[in-house]
Amino acid sequence: MPIYQTSAEYLREAIDSILAQSYKDYEFIILNDSPKNPDLKAMVESYTDRRIRYYENAKNLGIAGSYNRLLELANCEYAAMMNHDDISHPDRIKLQVEYMDAHPEIGVLGTAFKKFGEINRFKTVINKVDDASIRSLFLFKVPLHHPTVMFRRKLIIENNIHYNTNYISLNDRQLFYDISKVSKLANLPQVLYKYRFHPQMASKIFKPEVFVEKCNFHTMWLDEHNVKLNGQEKYILDYYATYGRCQIREYKILKQVVEVLNKINDANKENHFLPEAEFADACSHYLVKRCLNAALYGKFASTRALRGNTIPMDSKLVKLCNILLAWRQGAL
Questions:
Q1: Do the beta carbons of residue 15 and residue 44 sit within 8 Å?
Q2: Which residues are CB-neighbours of 99 under 8 A, at least 6 positions away?
Q3: Which of 324, 326, 246, 319 is nearest to 286 (CA)?
Q4: Residue 72 in contact with residue 162, Cβ under 8 Å?
Q5: Are residue 62 and residue 134 in the same domain, yes or no?
Q6: What is the CA radius of gyration of the chain?
Q7: Same domain membership, residue 125 and residue 241
Q8: What is the tens place of the pLDDT at every residue in 294-324?
Q9: How confident is the model over 81-95, as pLDDT tens digits?
Q10: Same domain for 198 and 260?
């Protein structure tokens, strides 16, 4: 667990949740990335549990640099991550260890989680659980929630995999993507983690920088899979097809989203770089979301834009788009 200018209340809750784990045989490495803050050191050293190992960075390394040093400091078969302001379920480590022991082919294992705090307080997130579905989602999102993961440390060391220190936020997506090249991935469907939302989260403070990181990741992903997009198509991918905060107000934009997702899915069908059914399902999911977006913000139906679409889509979800449109236009 890296810590940095952490709230005393949040830090104590995080530490307590790990010390209360039903699984007892572990070391708890806490790395202070704000060494000039004596209060954090005092807080950690107030605990007498011998499983805690406390370290400080000589200078601020940032989150990715701290993650890399934590892996260097660890001496274990499995490494589990933890945020300094979240809460782990008492059986989290036990259930992850049992799963990893039973599935040696899995290199990284995440869990479902529940959001809490000042915003998104009651939302539960259950990510895809199987390897094929998880690896098919990297273009669109981080398919494992980083602070919930447990992974095989040996896999990281032997393959010289590191957190990308050039990233503020996407270092976890890059790490999982790199691991996916040498191992399978999985998520547990059980909610074993509480993820605190608050205004000081890096993803909220550094929104422009995080968006650029996502665009750069898309470029890398497309290059590695030999998918050729022109400048306008790449713009549509970055700003609309994969961007959850977009607002589609024009028919031509939705039509271009359809065309770009079809082009990428067709490339996969031809070159087989990802499981075909699972990747098509991922494309379909985001295409439906953009049709809903167009109904909400643009007040137009997606029927015409979907002509020529070859991505399998659930007719019930398409019908939902029309229901939303009718509501948006005041017909319901």
A1: yes
A2: 106, 109, 186, 188
A3: 246
A4: no
A5: yes
A6: 21
A7: no
A8: 988 998 888 888 888 999 987 776 677 767 7
A9: 999 999 999 999 999
A10: no
Give the helix ranges, DSSP H, for 202-275.
Answer: 202-205, 207-224, 231-236, 251-271
Measured torsion, CA atoms of residues 40, 41, 46, 48, in degrees rounded to the nearest 10: 130
Query: Would you call 33 exposed, middle or buried from its count of C-beta atoms within 10 A (0-12, 13-18, 19+)?
Result: buried
The pTM (predicted TM-score) of the whole model is 0.92
Pairing label, strands 150-152, 78-80:
antiparallel
Q: Which residues share a beta bridge with 110?
A: 187
d(CA 16, CA 31) in angstroms, rounded, equals 16
The count of other CB atoms within 10 Å of the CB of residue 252 is 9
Q: Write the CB contacts of 268 (distance below 8 Å, at least 6 apart in sequence).
A: 225, 274, 276, 279, 280
- The answer to whether residue 209 sits within a structural domain is no
